[in-house]
Each structure stands twice: as structure tokens, then as C-alpha cells.
Amino acid sequence: MTDIAGRVRELMAEHEHEFIATLKHLHQHPELSFHEYDTTAFIKAHLESLGIEILDIGLETGVVGLLKGAKDGPCIALRADIDALSIQEESSCDYRSTIDGRMHACGHDTHTTSLLGAAMILAALRSEIKGSVKFLFQPAEEVNKGAKLMMKLNCLENPKVDAVFGMHNSSEYPAGSVCVKRGPLMASVDRIEFYIKGKGGHGGIPQRSVDPVVCAAAIIQSAQTIVSRNVSPIDAAVVSICSVKAGEVNNVIPDEVVMLGTVRAYKRETQELVERRLGEITNGIAAAYGCEVVFKYIYELAVTDNNNPMMCDAAYKAVSAVATPVDPIPSTGGEDFSEYAKTNVPTFFYWLGVRNENEDCIYPWHSPRFKADLRSLKYGAGTYAMSVFTAIDQLRK
Ligand code: NI
After folding, report:
1. Is the terminal CB of the chain with fewer CB neighbours within 10 Å at N or C?
2. What is the distance between the alpha carbons of residues 304 and 101, in angstroms, rounded to a whole number?
3. What is the CA(166)–ligand 1 centre distance, in A?
4. 129 CA distance to ligand 1 centroid (A)?
């Protein structure tokens, strides 16, 4: 393993200029979820040039590649997302997006580049791989639909995958570091919808109406007690009502208020508690105010939870060999990577440090000024590549 780690580090350094060129190309040509056509063609050409087989699982955008090692053994999947956002770039990059209103503002280009880099490293070390590697270039992470599609198309079958690693960048941690968190790293993402019906009327004669706006206000206030009074102080949850739509003019009480929001948590039990309490509060308050209400709680994404001890060990060993491991503070952002874990295949999710204050790489995900330190790319590539060796090693024990 020491030898392999040394070879991986050599290849990281040797190919770094190519990683940087790849990142710049992808960054200049961002494509939105499920429209990643040029990105897909670019990835395919790159994999084919390395002798990596392209598997046709029925994806229109996104790519699945397979690299068979010298011997039979476990199949390790490495996943990167490839899509960009509808954001006008304002970063200080000299390789800005060439497309107006579109930008890699979540740094998925760093993930794609890192995985293409890993493909270069692993193709060079093919004779050392006692198993195989599946490359999952996933579309449409930003709309929470890409991983679901990949799973529907059985991306973890033929050959059957024994472990999956994924990665997201983080501008909270310096380039050169990679975060290895045991336990939950990113939160569940649930959608809440409220349809509150009253009886509209004259704003000056409220006694003849049933005002859904006052009812909605009471629900908004009371919903905030769930985190402070119902969720254990040791657990975490977020309840945010982000959209409230009611009425058009200043003196008419509307018939209906529609509210939309999001709930985040780190445990399934917490999600279920919030769902139950939101339902009780909403229905109870609506009854008290004489309104009718429809409340919907929609489970969108599960927690991204590094809960497999074998994978945690493999991840820590991989990062220790090629970068500086960091124990991060989890985020209440979500990730559709959690979809891959639903089949009970062992998974692990990294954060790649991309922060560099001297290079203006300090902005959070989805900021128009988002910028990743290019020095992070070789650590991303090295971490993905090294994970294959440490995971195969663990799985063969
Ligand atoms: Ni992202």
C-alpha cells in the first residue's frame, strides 16, 4: 500500500497541469441539470482516451465508465456530479463562464475534474487494481433528481458495486485538506407545503371573513417552536418557511395562503418528529382560526451519513496517504448522494477543501463569486484514486 500511495502521489503531481486545464474548460462551459450534453461528450472522450469502457445504462446526460483491474475482485464506484446553476458569474476567475447567466457556482466542475483525474491515475495503475472501478458521472444533482435516475437505471449493477465514494468541495476548508467525517455529514432535505383556506372579503370588514393570513402567521410562529421545544437540544433540525403567497391588494382579505418551506435534519427519527409536530400545529391552529388546511410533508433526500465503519477506515487511510485529513463540522445543506446508500451498499462522502484566502477562494456554494483553488484538484483526484485501493484492501480482508 505504501508503494501504491507513492505512485498515486507521483501521478497527482505529474498530471496536475492537465487537471487544471480540464477544470478551466469545464468551468467555461457550464450546463444545467439534465442538459449536460457537451460535458457528457467531453467526459466520454476523456475516458475513451484512457481505455476505459463506457457502459450504456440508458442515460441521456451523464456517463458510467468501467475500468477492469488486473485481477478479479470488488467493484468500487466513484461518483461525481456534473451540472451547473442559473447564476451570473461574478467571480475573480480568469477562466469565467462563457455563457451568460450560467455558472459552476457549486463547484461541480471540481468534482468532475477530480474524477477524470482519478481515471487518469487509475488507468496508469490498472495492473495494481485487484478488482474494478466504476466511474459515475451523475447529471442533475442540483435538482435532486440525478442520483434517483442513476439508481432507477441500476447504475450499481452489472457489474455489482461493493462500495461507493462521493465528493463535494467545501470553501470552509483549505486546499490540500480533505474532510473525513464519521457519521452524518449532510442533512436530509424535505419539502413542506401548506394550503390554508379561509373566506375572503373586505379588508375593512374582517368580521365577515375568515382570514387565512392571520392563521398563516400563527402557523409560521408556532412552527419555530418545533426546533426549540420538541427536537432534543443534542439533535439538530431546521424548519424554514421560505415562500408565503397571499392576496394582491391592500384592502382585500384573500381566500387562500400558500406557503412553501424546507426541513433539514440528521436523523430519520428527527424528520418524523418534525413531520408529526408540523402536522399537529398546522391542523390545530387552522381549526382554532376556522380555516381549512392541507399540509404536505415530502421526503426528498435522506441524510448523507458516513455510517459504515469499514468505509470510514478506508476513507481515512486514503486521505492520509495523499492529502491532509480534517474532521469537519457537518452542513445542513443536502446531497442526493444519499440515494446510493438506499440499497445498503457501503458509501462514504468526502468534502474536498478548496479554500484559499490569497486567491479569493472563500465564497460559499451557490455564490456568484464562488471560486475553487486550483491546487485542490490533485488532492481530489488522489483521494478518489486512493480510495479504490484502500476500499479493495478493506473488502478483501
Ligand atoms: Ni453542489
Report:
1. C
2. 30
3. 12
4. 30
